[in-house]
């Protein structure tokens, strides 16, 4: 009998489930062309949670809807790039072919469960519909599966709750129903668009713990779209920072939190409220995300960036600054050095205050 231990694959040895290559999703309206997603590239691996962060209007949700094939057409259209799911380019598939994948292989938890669940059908009927559409089972078998799924996501008395309507449930329970629906056919990729929005902190923690538990059991790849860097730190393995339809920074979660380099990423970290009680004004990022109808040429953060120069009128390319850590910025070295100096001063001041 061999006593050799099974060697587990490292993070970068896991199979790639999804890869976006220069994805471009535009909306053609009376006001002009909105380039909501304008050259996004990233990948997510089996059993990995990829966090996608950025302000509202940066293209996070539009990217997710593009992956699902749910961009409203018209006015939306994927005008370029590839969405490679296990090597298959989803942008080349027909609507019928996409429908076979959507829900079964790739599923999504939408941001607001009250508007995503149909109010005139029971939650059991809606979970059963997902199962019946993709698997060869009877209605009774689908109902039993629905009850089992409600039990797995922590809903009490699932045999009774399966016949409830969405309005009979709390926000946290509706979100659990959405998770049950998304996991009904054991998808290989799960997109979670702000899954804890509008939930109190206790329920948020329960939902995140539930998603982590189900991921470990099923080895599902997850894309977590969120504004909350605390959620990213707690749940994600890798992080993509998006700004104005582009990827600004892409790194593993430890590298990003220890060594943020893009001025926008640094600004996001500085915007986190200080809970230690040091006082002072809350840091804000000057200006607003530019309109998708009129993105600036070159670096799209230049109008809000304290390090911007004429060089920023030229679009910065993604640069690998350390293994698996990429930044699109001409002045990331200056930004990093400035941030490190500020952090050092902050640590010195804290020490002095403690001594007093």
Oligomer: single chain
**Strand neighbour order, sheet with most strands:** 6-7-8-3-9-10-12-11
Number of strands: 12
Return the CATH class of the largest domain.
Answer: Alpha Beta
Helix content: 25-40%
Q: Superfamily at the CATH H level of the largest domain?
A: P-loop containing nucleotide triphosphate hydrolases
How much of the residues is beta strand, in percent?
A: 15-25%
Mean pLDDT: 89
Taking pLDDT < 50 over at least 5 consecutive residues as the criterion, the unreliable ranges are: none
Architecture (CATH level 2) name of the largest domain: 3-Layer(aba) Sandwich
How many discrete structural domains?
Answer: 2
Structural class: alpha/beta
> Which geometry do the CA atoms define?
globular
How far apart lie the N and C ends? 65 Å
Give the count of helical stretches. Answer: 12
Describe the protein's architecture and organization:
This protein has 356 residues and is of the alpha/beta class. The protein has 2 domains: 15-241, Rossmann fold, CATH 3.40.50.300; 253-355, no CATH class. Helix content is 35%, strand content 22%. It is globular and about 65 Å long.
Summarize the topology.
Blueprint: E1 16-29, E2 32-45, E3 49-53, H1 60-68, E4 76-85, E5 88-89, H2 95-101, E6 106-109, H3 113-116, H4 123-134, H5 139-152, H6 158-161, H7 171-182, E7 189-193, H8 201-218, E8 221-225, H9 229-235, E9 238-243, E10 246-252, H10 253-258, H11 263-270, E11 319-322, E12 325-327, H12 332-355
Parallel strand pairs: 3-8, 3-9, 6-7, 7-8
Antiparallel strand pairs: 1-2, 1-4, 4-5, 9-10, 10-12, 11-12
């Amino acid at each position: 009998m061999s006593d050799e231990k099974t060697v587990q694959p490292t993070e970068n040895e896991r199979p790639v489930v999804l890869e976006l290559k220069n994805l471009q999703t535009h909306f053609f309206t009376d006001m002009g062309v909105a380039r909501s997603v304008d050259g996004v590239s990233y990948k997510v691996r089996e059993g990995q949670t990829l966090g996608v962060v950025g302000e509202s209007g940066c293209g996070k949700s539009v990217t997710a809807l593009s992956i699902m094939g749910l961009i409203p057409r018209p006015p939306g259209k994927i005008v370029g790039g590839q969405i490679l799911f296990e090597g298959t380019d989803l942008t080349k598939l027909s609507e019928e072919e996409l429908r076979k994948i959507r829900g079964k292989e790739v599923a999504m938890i939408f941001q607001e469960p009250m508007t995503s669940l149909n109010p005139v059908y029971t939650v059991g009927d809606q979970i059963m519909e997902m199962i019946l559409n993709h698997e060869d089972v009877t209605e009774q078998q689908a109902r039993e599966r629905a009850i089992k799924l409600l039990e797995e996501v922590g809903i009490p008395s699932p045999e009774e709750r399966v016949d409830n309507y969405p309005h009979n449930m709390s926000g946290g329970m509706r979100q659990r129903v959405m998770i049950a629906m998304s996991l009904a056919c054991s998808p290989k990729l799960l997109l979670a668009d702000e899954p804890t929005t509008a939930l109190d902190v206790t329920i948020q923690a329960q939902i995140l713990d539930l998603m982590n538990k189900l991921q470990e059991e099923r080895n599902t790849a997850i894309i977590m779209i969120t504004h909350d860097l605390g959620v990213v730190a707690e749940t994600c393995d890798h992080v993509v920072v998006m700004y104005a339809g582009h990827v600004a920074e892409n790194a593993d979660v430890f590298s990003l939190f220890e060594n943020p380099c893009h001025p926008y990423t640094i600004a996001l970290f500085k915007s986190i409220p200080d809970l230690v009680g040091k006082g002072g004004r809350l840091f804000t990022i000057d200006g607003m995300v530019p309109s998708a109808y009129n993105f600036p040429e070159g670096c799209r953060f230049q109008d809000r960036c304290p390090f911007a120069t004429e060089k920023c009128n030229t679009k910065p390319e993604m640069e690998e600054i350390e293994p698996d850590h990429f930044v699109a910025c001409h002045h990331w070295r200056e930004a990093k050095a400035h941030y490190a100096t500020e952090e050092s001063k902050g640590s010195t001041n804290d020490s002095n205050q403690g001594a007093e």
